Amino acid sequence: MLADSGKAADKVTGGRGVPTSQVLDELLRQLRPRVCQDADLDPQTLIDWLGRQLGVEIALVDRAGKVEMSTARLAPNILSGLQLVLTQLSSGQMAAAASQVGGFHVRCEALGRQVPRPVLVGGSPLPLTREALALASHVGAMIEVLRRVRQADDLALRCQQAATRLRLAVFTALMAGEPTLARRMTAGAVPPLLDAERLRIHLLRCPPSDRGRLIDAYQDASGYHGRGLMVRCPVYDHHLICLLPMDHDGDSVDGGLAAPLRALVRDNPHYALGISAPVPLPATAQAYDQARHALAVAGHTPERVADYHARPPLAGLLPRRQALAWAHAFLEPIREAPGSPSTSPAWP
Predict the structure, then answer these.
(1) Are residues 200 and 297 in the same domain?
(2) Do 130 and 34 fall within a single domain?
(3) How far apart are CA 160 and CA 93, in angstroms?
(4) Nearest partner of 121 among 178, 187, 71, 192, judged by Cα
(5) What is the pTM of this model?
(6) What are the residues whose beta carbons fall under 8 Å from the beta carbon of 46, sequence distance 6 or more?
(7) Cis omega (within 30 of 0) on the bond before 116?
(8) Among candidates 246, 241, 229, which has minimal Cα distance to 186?
(9) Phi and psi, residue 344, nearest 5°
């Protein structure tokens, strides 16, 4: 960064005479616990560490020209005299620049390649050695990597949230009996579930904190779950709604979700599973109601899994005209029995 203060020392040293190899080892020791524990790597920590190692005041100026973070004792007048240089660095006209502001030797270096670029600024009463400047440049590159990782994580989180909202919207449309509306919502990325004629709902009861983990575990790159769809229940925090398409023979074609759901219940004593009968897509609300009733039954069974087996009313299964003719013929003798009102209204 800053101009050399003389010939390079025989031993590679930092701003305080610490061998740079040892400084780099210390930097790795600072980072390793956070990487291993998947903790948030804070650029401020690196800036403070670099300032302590080199005895330099450091600032990271963002793409808008504002100080994003800095060491505690950075003098404001250092940056006030660098506006033109900072603009040229941020816009990509230069990669690095050295200057002197008051009694400070200042070195600025642009980070990354995306314009406008952030700029790492270091100021010290004495010029730094070449090795110290190389260390500062190395840490600056690491800071930019951390910034880009954060941006990627933020983008991934926003995509995940959008996928969650879309899945819930599809489920809501199906509950309203509107599969066509659900397809329109997903134009360009229609989930395979919406191409099925029938579906079955698996309603999983589990701890609320497990729902997100399960959804992520079975989610594919499109934001769906193979041929199925997993949705957090918007009403009950401990319910995970799983919509599985069915083939013409009543077998699941969900790509393998049914078996893992049963295995989850088998391996977790706090889980239970209610399974609806196969229904057409517009009858999703009926399937959900069936799965809810089955889940209530599942909680009282050793396996904690129950399928919906309702007995439909007989009148709904018989042809109406033939059923009425048979009923008239079967009950006709009663009309002639003693005590039967002769003026009884005609049967339907």
Answers:
(1) yes
(2) yes
(3) 37
(4) 71
(5) 0.63
(6) 27, 30, 139, 142, 143, 146
(7) yes
(8) 229
(9) -60, 145
